[in-house]
Amino acid sequence: MGFTDEDRVRARAIIDRYPHAKSAMLPLLLLAQDRDGWVTPEAMEEIAVWLGTTPALVLGTCSFYTMLKREPVGDLVVSVCTNIACLVNRGPELLDGLRSRYEGDTAIMVEEVECIAACDRAPAIQINYEYYGPVDTTAAVDIIEQYRSGALQARTISGSSRGAK
Amino acid sequence: MAIEETRIVTKFLRDRPQDSWEYAVAREHNQAYSALEAALKRDPNELIEEVKTSGLRGRGGAGFSTGQKWSFLPAGVFPRYLAINADEGEPSTFKDHMLIEGDPHQLIEGTIISAFAIGAHHAFIYIRGEFALGTERLEAAVAEAYKNGYLGKDILGSGFDLELIVHQGAGCYIAGDETGLLSSLEGERAMPRIKPPFPAVQGLFAAPTVVNNVETISNIPHIVRKGGEWYASMGVNKSTGTRIFSVSGMVERPGNYEIELGMSFRDLIEGLAGGVRGGRPMQFFIPGGASAPWLLPEHLDEPLDMDRASELRTMLGSGSIMAFDDTVDPLLVSWRLARFFAHESCGKCTPCREGSSWIEKVLYRMTNGLGRPDDLDLLLDFGSNIVPGLNAPFAQTTICALGPSTMSHVVSLDRCFGAEIRARLQKDFDKRRSLEVTPA
Ligand SMILES: Cc1cc2nc3c(=O)[nH]c(=O)nc-3n(C[C@H](O)[C@H](O)[C@H](O)COP(=O)(O)O)c2cc1C
Ligand code: FES
User: Fold this and answer.
1) From the candidate CATH numbers 1.20.1440.230, 3.90.190.20, 1.20.1260.10, 1.10.10.10, the one assigned to the domain spanning B330-435
2) What CATH code would you report for B235-325?
3) Rounded to whole angstroms, how far apart are CA atoms B30 and B371?
4) Which of B317, B326, B342, B347 could bridge B356 with an S-S bond, Cβ 3.0-4.6 Å?
5) Is A95 in the pocket of ligand 2 (CB under 6 A)?
6) For residue B340, which residues of chain A lie inside 8 Å, CB to CB?
């Protein structure tokens, strides 16, 4: 847990890309999330030092964005859209189906999200930000289970390819 | 005459060999970076004039003249920045990530030309956090562009330097507002800022900044290659060129269609997207993203013209159309939109922060048979504190346009279905009354 020296080198490279260090806030929070599976208070404190700001300001930014999780959420985030195209194409049914199927499962978090810009494939979902749609509960469960078993390789819970960064 | 698309920015991604987007393919099949080569030999001001001549207007929502926006940068003030808005959060819009995934080099080329025209040496593509594949692809394409000498120092020997940074967001609609985007890019909550000063004068870290949408910028290489006159020869009135419309909801063939502006809603929805599914009658459609006031089947023969849309008191907004059949409850759609705006309100301005959640609550009871007879009028009454006058083009008491958007579907309910809804509320109320037990 926590940043390694290798992460610190990467963090420095990210900061150096920007004309102003503070722009690196979101990329560093996403990096921290991929490292620990969520954004820990310790990570926010260290990011504050790197960016020359306060932990409160880092928390203030972090808590504004829905993709940044401030508690452990498991290995797979399943985002189910119920905005209007999905609403009229059985999105709410899909959400209920997936919620009851994975209730109490600590490895999989099912969350209701706003339009994920796949309205032409409604009802649409993302599994660690990989798109699927249109799907029903059975099809979605089938894909989720393939990720769980490793038959499909999932992105991180921030959406980056494993090993890519 | 057959109804057809006019493909300019979508040409390569539709015709490309089997899902390939890489530099070599884009170069061979789509003359990628040939417009940049030509642009770098020209005077930057001449390029701005060319874009003005094209009549190109922003594809992100507000429809402002792109060339004019570029010319607002104060002379002699540096550094300057260019930020490409790839946040695409407006419900029902899904064209920008298609452009990014399918043809990232077109966007990168447009970005470099635009940065050269305005004199920026740093450009950012702010991409919505949820676009994992888009981010990956864009990063790979940017790396290819660096490798081939289109980015970095002394681009193609022109003496022009540019660093291009792909910046991934982390999930929030309001980062799509141009000033919210800049706050986010500064490492803050994506809270919008009051204008003036406009970003062109004081934007990112208080430096002059141009913010443009992905589709807007993807058009730039074509305008440079073929000329502003050519672009302006397409379209209708002050809506020149083509636009991609994301068509979805309950249509036979949902998807993105690039058409010459001026085509009718009917040709787009029925001709290209196949009309309402199963041949059912259309009840209403939303012509420009969740923030746009609704239209009725009687408007289907109107042209896709940004100024005509304003006359109809709506907008083409983010370039999307969602159609609903006669089985859908308009109140349910309105309530779901209200919930969206309540969730996405950043909390900075009181009318929007407080108003958006009240609208959601009242619509919830209206939708679920618990409404009071004057609930629609109640909404219109307190909504006019967010949107004085209640009508598009919207006035606002908030810093950004999310405020008026919280009311545009309510205004639509009144305009399109006012009498039915009032009758329904009365009926629900009477029914509840009749069930009340009178004490003996
Ligand atoms: C709440 C809100 C959300 C917005 N979301 C987007 C968006 O996702 N993408 C976009 O390009 N413009 C969006 N806009 C419009 C931008 O503020 C801005 O007008 C646009 O990016 C400018 O680029 P253009 O002139 O090329 O259209 C949004 C505006 C508001 C008020
Ligand atoms: S409404 Fe569900 S993806 Fe757009």
Assistant:
1) 1.20.1440.230
2) 3.10.20.600
3) 57
4) B342
5) no
6) 83, 114-115
What's chain A's Rg over C-alpha atoms?
17
Contact check, Cβ <8 Å, B332/A51: no
| B335 alpha carbon – ligand 2 mean position (Å) | 15
Mean pLDDT computed over B363-373? 97
pTM: 0.97
Assign residue B3 a region: left if phi > 0, alpha if psi is -120 to 50, beta otherwise?
beta
Within its chain, how far is the Cα of B106 from the centroid?
Answer: 19
Domain ranges within chain A, ordered by starting residue: 5-64, 76-149
* Ligand 1 pocket by Cβ (under 6 Å): B 58-62, 64, 85, 87-90, 174, 176-178, 211-213, 216, 400-402
H or E segment at B81?
strand B81-86
CATH superfamily of A5-64: NADH-quinone oxidoreductase subunit E (1.10.10.1590)
Top residue of A23, A68, A131, A155 to mutate, by most chain B CBs within 10 Å, is A23
CATH superfamily of A76-149: Glutaredoxin (3.40.30.10)
Q: Is the confidence at residue B143, as pLDDT, over 80?
A: yes
Compute the CA torsion angle B28, B32, B36, B39 (nearest 10 deg): 80
Work out the pLDDT band at A165, boundaries 50, 70, 90.
very low
Model confidence pLDDT, tens digit, residues A128-137: 999 999 999 9
B190/A contact by beta carbon, under 8 A = yes
